[in-house]
Amino acid sequence: MRKAVLGVLMALAAVFAMAPSADAGHMQTAAATVPATPGTVTSGPRPAIAGKSEGDVSVKRAFTTWATNVNVRHNNASLTTCGMSPSTANCPNIRGQVNPGASFEVWCQKIGSQTVGSNPYWVYIITPNFDGWMASYYIDYPDNVLPDTRFC
Length: 152
Hints:
Number of strands: 6
Strand order of the largest sheet: 1-4-5-6
Low-confidence stretches: 1-50
Shape: globular
Order of helices and strands: HHHEEHEEEE
Mean pLDDT: 73
């Protein structure tokens, strides 16, 4: 029983560790942490998110995917395992799928334990219906590191 309670508490701690700071102006962004690769182009305007204005932080973190039926993953048995090192093995449960044109918010990004398409980054995304981990490879953006998106 104690192990189960401890597991739940650790999972909640991992989820709250991903929460943004109260002062979004001091949020660490990928652009401030990792220099832009010379010669890369930035994507055009971000997809629209209902109820959000252009100055909203979440609008800056709005993306879409270039591939169809991209799995958004989770680990129902161990939130900590999935959150600490995202991969298909560590995040075996599929919460939903995203498709081109469907806008979602990228909450944070981190290097996972699995590289997909030569991109080692995984992103935690939020949609109106589900949230979870997705390989950053599938995001419609030319660089591995996403702009205006903090590291987990």
